[in-house]
Sequence to fold (341 residues):
Amino acid sequence: MANYHQLFPLIILLISIISPAKTTGNHHGPPPPPLTLNYYEKTCPRFHEIVQNVVVPKQSTHPTTAAATLRLFFHDCMVGGCDASVLVASNPYNKAERDQDINESLAGDGFDVVKRVKTALELECPGVVSCADVLAVTTRDLLVQVGGPNFEVKLGRKDGIESKASNVEGKLGRANMTIDKIIQIFESHKYTIREMVVLMGGGHTIGFAHCKEFQSRLFGPKPDPSVHPKLAERLKAMCANSSKDPTVSAFLDPISAGNFDNMIFKNLLNGLGVLGTDQAMASDPRTRPFVEEYARDSNAFFKDFARAMEKTSVYQVKTGNQGEIRRRCDAFNNLPTGNVA
Ligand code: HEM
Fold:
């Protein structure tokens, strides 16, 4: 006669057979499908051409578009994954992500280019291409246009059906945070410190920052001694009237703004970082070796940036029935059901 100890494994096995199966992620069927490179090959064969037809003239006439879109994409992906939730407008029932204070400075050209691409795609293949895919591919194409590295963007993301301002806090860095806090945030998104440095450099080699993001480094009570005196002089003159005109902005890469290159890392080694958090990467022993490496080796910067962007582009994506294909990028298809704050 078998004793309890011999029967125990058998009992566990029986329980696991008769209890309902636990599936990963999706409880109502097979796991969600993976992204693929040729997702729209049959349903919207001119997808890439249509994106290009919008993106190229937009960047040529509005050179701030590439930076605006890259920041928009990054801020979307870090909050609940790359699901275009940052594009959704608030309504009386819901304060959306884009109205959280850190997102209020997202520049209009990013939203505009996505809207134009989506409209062009809707005319050719209605209801087929998600806003999340539009944002991902538009960002990549714009980066290539300003001289950045190419990288593969897999497709088939679905658009999120939730966008809440309250989800944003703690997911994105602020320029007045300590380097410890910035590292902690990137680690919470499963980035290495190396990836964090390369993404920051790639992000801040183009684009602008408003005076309020860095002026505490210039004016009292305790000016930051790590700002190069020449840069401090220039930024102070520029920001002198920023309380009257809060739109005044400085290039994040004061030496080669507009060009996607590794100059930002050389700048940081010379005290020419505009944001406090960027400059801190040149002094902290955990980040400085990567700043030095990318300052010397442009190829390593391009290669690592491309890889980190590819990783970003698939972060927590929704596929299959985990989301929808929005008809317009600034509103959920069903309003306001399910989105009441
Ligand atoms: C290390 C953490 C980061 C902090 C604290 C930070 C902070 C900031 C701040 C304060 C601005 C200026 C915003 C304004 O005044 O309008 C800015 C701009 C920008 N950031 Fe970051 N950022 C970080 C990482 C990144 C990453 C990883 C990317 C993308 C890969 C990125 C892309 C950009 C771009 C492209 C701009 C310029 C936007 C424009 O010109 O419209 N940032 N960032």
The radius of gyration is 23 Å. The beta strands are 208-210, 249-251. The chain has twelve helices and two strands.
